[in-house]
């Protein structure tokens, strides 16, 4: 079945919004491999770092959906139980008492769940981090760092999971690693000038 057919016949509003390197919603292409979900649309600026890393660095289309376990638990359960079969990894972000990733890990014994704690409120994300990481035995959540680095790393971790069975993603992961190495090289090339600036 072509990607086009899967998108137009199988995806509906209940599945969330498809996002790919080509665009958003009707402009997006391909079948979603990852669900990027979060407790509120106020988490979106943070989670766009995960979405953009997935689509632009690794060419991975994803579904984006808001799911709040504190405001509408029943819809979350329905959405997560009815994910399109092409979705193989879930990235879930929340701030505060962050129960979303753990609840998804319990609902979906078959899918890896990656948690991104949002840096929010009086405890600045430490509450979300501990809520996600202290899962009881049997329902693991792979918890990333609080904030921006965590969102980007969630996308890389999801890509690594998909790369186990997808050589094209494996290649893009290698290219991403090369870009990071090139940054160190560039920094060393400009180092003498920077050091001179410090000793002026
Ligand atoms: C969490 O509460 C959400 O994931 C968000 O991080 C936080 C605040 O939500 P809003 O009050 O901004 O909607 O459930």
From TrEMBL:
The record's comment on protein family reads: Belongs to the AIR carboxylase family. Class I subfamily.
Q: What taxonomic ancestry is recorded?
A: Bacteria, Bacillati, Chloroflexota, Ktedonobacteria, Ktedonobacterales
Record: residues binding substrate: 40, 43, 71
Superkingdom of source = Bacteria
Q: Which UniProt keywords apply?
A: Isomerase, Purine biosynthesis
Q: GO biological process: what's one of them?
A: 'de novo' IMP biosynthetic process
GO molecular function terms attached to this record: 5-(carboxyamino)imidazole ribonucleotide mutase activity
Q: What is its EC number?
A: 5.4.99.18
Please list the reactions this protein catalyses: 5-carboxyamino-1-(5-phospho-D-ribosyl)imidazole + H(+) = 5-amino-1-(5-phospho-D-ribosyl)imidazole-4-carboxylate
Q: Which organism is it from?
A: Thermosporothrix sp. COM3
Functionally, this protein is described as follows: Catalyzes the conversion of N5-carboxyaminoimidazole ribonucleotide (N5-CAIR) to 4-carboxy-5-aminoimidazole ribonucleotide (CAIR).
Which protein is depicted? N5-carboxyaminoimidazole ribonucleotide mutase
Task: Look at the named UniProt entry and state the broad enzyme category this protein falls under.
Answer: isomerase
């Amino acid at each position: 079945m072509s990607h086009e057919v899967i998108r137009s016949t199988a995806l509906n509003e209940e599945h969330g919004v498809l996002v790919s390197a080509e665009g958003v919603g009707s402009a997006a292409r391909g079948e979603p491999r990852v669900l990027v979900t979060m407790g509120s649309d106020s988490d979106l600026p943070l989670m766009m770092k995960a979405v953009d890393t997935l689509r632009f660095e690794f060419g991975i289309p994803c579904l984006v959906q808001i799911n709040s376990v504190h405001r509408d638990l029943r819809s979350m359960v329905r959405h997560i139980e009815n994910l399109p079969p092409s979705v193989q990894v879930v990235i879930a972000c929340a701030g505060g008492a962050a129960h979303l990733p753990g609840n998804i890990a319990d609902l979906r014994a078959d899918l890896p769940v990656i948690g991104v704690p949002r840096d929010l409120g009086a405890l600045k994300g430490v509450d979300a981090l501990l809520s996600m990481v202290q899962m009881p035995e049997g329902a693991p959540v792979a918890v990333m760092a609080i904030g921006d680095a965590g969102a980007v790393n969630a996308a890389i971790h999801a890509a690594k999971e998909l790369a186990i069975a997808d050589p094209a993603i494996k290649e893009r992961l290698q290219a991403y690693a090369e870009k990071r190495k090139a940054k160190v090289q560039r920094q060393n090339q400009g180092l003498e000038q920077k050091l001179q600036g410090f000793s002026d």
